[in-house]
Amino acid sequence: MLFNLRMQRDESALKWFFTYQECSLKGSDQRNFLLLFALMSRAVNTSENVSETTRSEIQTFIKKVIQANINAKGYSEEEMVSRAQAFYSRMDGKEEPAYPLLKKYCGEFTALATAMRMASANLTILEFLKKLIHAEAGKHNAFVKNYIDELIARANPMEKAVYDEIRYNELIIRYQGEVEVAKEKFAAEQTHDASELCLIAEIIDWVFTADEKEVNGQSRLNMFALTREIHEKAINNHTAAYRAIDKIHLPITIGEYTTTADFSNEASEQQKVEQFFAAKRDNSLTQVKNWPAYVGFALGIAAAIASPLTSLSLLVVTLIGAGFGVVTLLKNKADRKQILLDYDNSISMTMDVLRHLFEEYGTYLAEYYEYDRYTEQIAAEFAQL
What we know:
By secondary structure, the chain is mainly α. The chain contains 17 helices and two strands.
């Protein structure tokens, strides 16, 4: 078909094309289909003069196969969306955002970091889409030459075992002697080549993994356009996932103070701190009892009244009781003063950390929303398809 097209013998090319359509497509045919995309997008060569009739036949066939894939038993759009989403998710920034106070005092900092990384992926996704959607048609597609070279070198049934061994050994070299990894990869490739072609999955993989040196950008764009809805849903799912992370109600622990803070209401959180330490202060103050002092005074008074009638030993009891009462009252006064001082220090320290936490959270939120706003530009790129 390719040689006939190059000689502008469209009628002969279509005869071969119709013969090809009678074949049962396997996983190993993925490169055949990529070639069809290249032809459809004039990516073989700018001097190629393919008639509109031929082009129409190719386009119709591709659409028919794609629709057959969608309607095939066992096809799952959700699975295809997840497949694309996995590629987009890997575009997020891997560095942990630098927010030391949130990291130290917030129990859900990992979730905050995840939301930030996922949101930051929007910038990479946008750059990826711009490069993909605004691709220029190449003058030459090295894929076609490599494809023909592979056809010429392809093993016949008698040679297959030898070629499989070569392929397996190349995998061992690629994985630096990790034999088990190479075995697993080789088995997966064998299964893929022998299985029925899942074109939607292949197209998604091509969009993300095709070698730019081989596959013309316009061909990738055509594949992307044919699976546009899947990509849109994948990106929307990615966006919904990081937006669903609760970034407002967060558990914080500052010393002995623990709460789930509402980071949309700083005044309320300050009031909660005051109430916590006021209750702690009042509880501590109630533990300081004056009644032992009064018991000591009562004992001393009783002993003083009785001492002239009995013995001088009761006078000693009087002095001890009075002294105990005075010492207890003085100690209680000092304890209450210390409790109030500790309360002032604790509330001051906690309030100071809380204030800085809210400031840092504001910086975090500003950065997060800056990344999130890229979704508008991403939607604008899809609108250009």
